[in-house]
Amino acid sequence: MATRRAPLEYNRAWQMKLWLFVVFFFLYAPLVALVIFSFNDSKRNIVWRGFTLKYYEKLFNNEDLLIAFANSLTIALFATLISLVIGALAGILLWRYRFFGKTAVEGAFTLPIVVPEICMGVSMLLFFTRVLPWPNDLIWPFSLGSIIIAHVSFCFPFVALVVRARLASFNQEQEEAARDLGANDWQAFRDVLLPHLKPALIAGALLSFTLSLDDFVITFFTSGPDTVTFPVKVYSMLRFSVTPEVNAASTMLILVTIVLMALMMLMQGRGKK
Amino acid sequence: MATQTQERRLAFLAIAVPPIAWVIVFFLAPLAIVWAYSFGQNQGLTEVDISGTFANYVRALQPLYLGIFAKSIFVAGITTLLCLIIGFPVALSIVFASERWRAWILLLIMLPFWTNLLIRTYALIAVLRTQGYVNFTLEWLWNQGSWLMTLVGLQPLGDFTPLQMLYNNFAVVFGLVYVHLPFMVLPLYAALDRLDKSLIEASLDLGAGHIRTLFLIVVPLALPGIISGIIITFVPALGAYLTPDLLGGPDSQMIANVIERQFKKANDWPFGASLSFLLMYATFAAIALRVYLTRGKPSDDGHGI
Amino acid sequence: MSDARKKSIFGSHSRRSILKGLGAAAVGITLTSKKFSALAAEEEKKLNFYNWDTYIGETTLEDFADASGIDVNMSLFATNDELFAKLRAGNPGYDVIVPGSEFVERMIKADLLEPLDHANIPNIKNIAPEFMDDAPFDPGRKYSLPYTWLVIGIGYRKSKVKEVPDSWKYLFNSDEYKGRIAVMSDASELFRNCFKYLGKSINDDSPELIKEAEAMLIKQKPNIKAFHEDNGQDLLLSGEVDLVMEYNGDIAQIMTEDDDINFVVPKEGAMKQQDTLAIPKGAPHPENALKFLNFIFEPEVGAEITKTILYPSPNAAAVALMPDSYKDNKVIFPPADLMAKCEYPRYLGADFTRLLDEAMTRLRAA
Questions:
Q1: Which residues of C293-316 are buried (b: 16+ CB within 10 A; e: fewer)?
Q2: B259 to chain A: nearest residue by CA?
Q3: Which of B6, B161, B167, C93 has the most crowded Cβ, counting Cβ within 10 A?
Q4: Which of B24, B26, B83 is the best substitution to test chain A (most A C-beta atoms within 10 A)?
Q5: Which of B198, B226, B229 shows the shortest CA–CA distance to B213?
Q6: What ipTM, to 2 d.p.?
Q7: Lowest mean pLDDT, pick from B7-11, C212-216, C333-337
Q8: Tell me: the pLDDT tens digits for B126-179?
Q9: In a domain, A62, yes or no
Q10: Is the pTM higher than 0.80?
């Protein structure tokens, strides 16, 4: 037999490679344009007028954009962490136990996905002004608290969903075996269940981080005078054309993300076994 | 024995209380306020009088709005379908990739989505518009073709008419797929990952081709993940308003745009609330239907959603 | 709805709070914010300014901080509706806001604004009198002061039109420029200018008029390429359309980048607007706000702002300091006879707003 690839090596098939190539091309072409236009010498950034680095210079001097950036990253970080915890607990709860009102709880956890963003934004606005007034002069990062809370509310159901899908393949006997061998609940959880959940947690974390970083509507309604986030700032620039500065900021954001991810990969690779 | 039950109890509470408490205080309570609003009417410019009226719902069920609902469902449906078709091979590729590549492909899929939605949409506009890159390239090819034809002695091609890829429904679907692709890929990946690969090998050994294996073995086993992916793609697509707003044409109005207008320009929060809740009831009914239909199935692993 | 300008700018803002927080986190101690000082006797030296992006001079906020020692923290909103939506549930802490004239009227009716004590704003004398007297949305300017004024008209590409499109008919009732037209997506702006075309007033609230305008627009819809959300000037600049319904200030901005563009106020008249400065109720620093308002109307400050945003300014003293290229610009200051036909939009009640919105929904769904 000629060089027949192994049955599961789908990635060697030319169709798969082509598909991936096309998909990535479509995903990245607009972004490449974005990066290129961050060097455009035109305030309106519609037509290419010439190469310049001045918008990068402006970016690093534009405190507000940087602060908005920092705010967005902070919110995303905290929201992701909290969502992971709550979402994982929610997923495990629904998978493992039967209890009175389970369907209702299940429904309640799904609801945030179903609610239109603007509806949720308005409800959060009303809540944080009428029901639970969030003090305006808390020190950063607590001033971002109301936004973080709102973000967790719409992020954790996604984590729960992914965790639950993953748990479906978990063999409960493994846990029981661990318990038979003398582990208590917490140890069984930590050493048996948690490792199995890892891919789901990573996927959930990525989802949450993305959702939070990019959110505009809900953040707009829960933010106050001191808490401008990146999407809100960019959206307000919509009026006057997105200048190359925003492109520069996005390029930096992408770079930072790549670096962070690479670091994470490295650390994971080193820490493994 | 008693302490073990107690321990079990404690474990249950530790797992149950945080998410339930959170969802009640920071989600259901705020939503209840808006729900109450949907039964109210505007009093003056800022106050809403919750009078228990159904007028808003009656208004929301008029053919005008129902038609827009239907159209939105249709657009979101196409978007989800496209995402599924495009995303499935990508998820497969991630799952079957070597450890090293897997992380990179995953990262590369997620990376565009850490760019701000607005900026990505503007970038899309730059690509799709009349003087955008696609048309630019096409025009260049057209001109080259024309020139070649004159070389050979044929009539040159006429003037290049640029493709209208923006400010129409095509752009909206394109933009929605562009935005929602990772929401499909991630759950698919999570579900395919736990697939028992030996089943696939067995099927191939028994003589089934790749496509048949795919449809008869892989898809049914990955079904819960597929359903998750469909739901978390369809529902946000249904509620999207920024993309249709920026990329859409005169008749690309989706229900979320109408809702947004109620909360902003029209300053009619009760009506906006009733439209939102109608949207939610409908989606929820669809999910509940799905749950009901699959409850009895033997392959149901208690996943539920 | 109003617009603003190019050039990202900004002085120092809440950097202090963030740096403090970062420093504190790093060292691991929590500092108490200086705002927790219990003495509320004297207002602390801070101001929360809620504005459109880049709608201020490059150094204005810094200059104000230098002159008065008050730190200005400028946050951003993107449309008047957002501003209203944020404020209607209760002021989250803004001292000075920039509502459009129609929204000023709404806010006054909703009791969201503080009355302004003109005695404490001596620089009011620099404002051209017609802006103080002719303000039907805020008689006597009790609650707001004019920041900029604008008028809606038709921006067009000279090389692509047969003659100057000086009438609304080219946008609303003609297929001469089929597929090369963009109009505004805001129901109030779009429909009310239709009223002008139909020979009526902008403030005519009869339902039949709305129906008539709706029918006309539905008929015209196949010729319209896009309903733009206040970025019409980009569509014009990028060649996506050749005629656009836009504000004169926006078109003036892009004219600096492209000579082939011009602007005209249609002969039937159009809607004019003001962006105003106001102090919302519940502002934490009302004294500072008054000082800020007074500062804005200094001639040099006004000139600095206008140089940056290039919008028509009601500050006569500031305009006097501007170069002739600005003063004589027919786009920024359209001819008086056309301006005489333009009106300010009044708030015509919730029913009218609802009818307009439904007409818009029907138009978009058609």
A1: bbbbbbbebbbbbbbbbbbbbbbb
A2: A118
A3: B167
A4: B26
A5: B198
A6: 0.75
A7: B7-11
A8: 788 777 777 877 888 888 888 888 888 777 777 777 777 888 888 899 999 988
A9: no
A10: no
